[in-house]
Write a structure and sequence with these properties.
Layout: H1 11-23, H2 28-36, E1 43-46, H3 56-67, E2 92-98, E3 103-109, H4 111-117, H5 126-129, H6 135-149, E4 153-158, E5 167-176, E6 182-191
Antiparallel strand pairs: 1-4, 2-3, 2-6, 4-5, 5-6
């Protein structure tokens, strides 16, 4: 059996994509990256309205996040409450920001996401798993763009063949610590249409 493809974390690429996502209406680099992997260009939208979001859990999360803003400040990490977030719980990822935003730890990985992905990543780092698909660098770029712009980011992007979902609808919401720095991301992640996986799930990283 052929070895699974590897997509190592590429900081230069991630930085370039993050800068484009955060600051440019021209998504040429993003389009070229996905086209090079045989995939359509992701859709990205900053600070979406509830009506821009295609799924109930994401609409709930943007409303919840906005209700907890104090003036122009971002919501604090302590707003995260399982009971308050119940309408979206199975579709939530809670990520701790590590290494100045170059890595993230999954504090929570929702059950509905794990079912469609095929694995529960709670406790793992993005650097542990991002090398198994071209989308890993895009997700990291999106998270870094959120840190730079300090605003909610909605994206729709295609999935690699081993994931039983055509695409993912993802809403990344920044949360701050006592010093005002973004220390955690509250992410809603809803799978698109179901499909049979066309590739085997990559082996678990040690």
């Amino acid at each position: 059996m052929a070895e699974p493809a590897q997509y190592p974390v590429d900081r230069a690429l991630i930085s370039s994509l993050a800068d484009e996502i955060a600051h440019s209406a021209d998504q040429a680099r993003l389009a070229a990256y996905f086209a090079g992997n045989g995939a359509p260009t992701p859709r990205v939208l900053w600070d979406p309205a509830e009506s821009d979001l295609p799924a109930g859990p994401l609409q709930f999360l943007i409303g919840f996040w906005r209700r907890h803003r104090a003036g122009h400040a971002l919501p604090c990490v302590d707003i995260v409450d399982p009971l308050a977030l119940r309408p979206a719980l199975g579709y939530i990822m809670l990520l701790d920001v590590l290494d100045d935003g170059w890595d993230y730890r999954y504090r929570l990985y929702g059950s509905q996401i794990a079912q469609r992905f095929g694995r529960d990543l709670t406790g793992r780092r993005t650097s542990d798993i991002s090398r198994t698909a071209y989308t890993g660098n895009f997700y990291l770029a999106g998270y870094r763009a959120v840190l730079a712009r300090r605003a909610p980011l909605f994206s729709v992007s295609s999935s690699p063949g081993y994931v039983a979902a055509v695409d993912w609808w993802r809403l990344a919401l920044p949360l701050i610590g006592p010093d005002g720095a973004i220390t955690r991301l509250l992410v809603g992640n809803v799978p698109g249409d179901w499909r049979p996986a066309s590739e085997p799930l990559p082996p678990r990283e040690a």
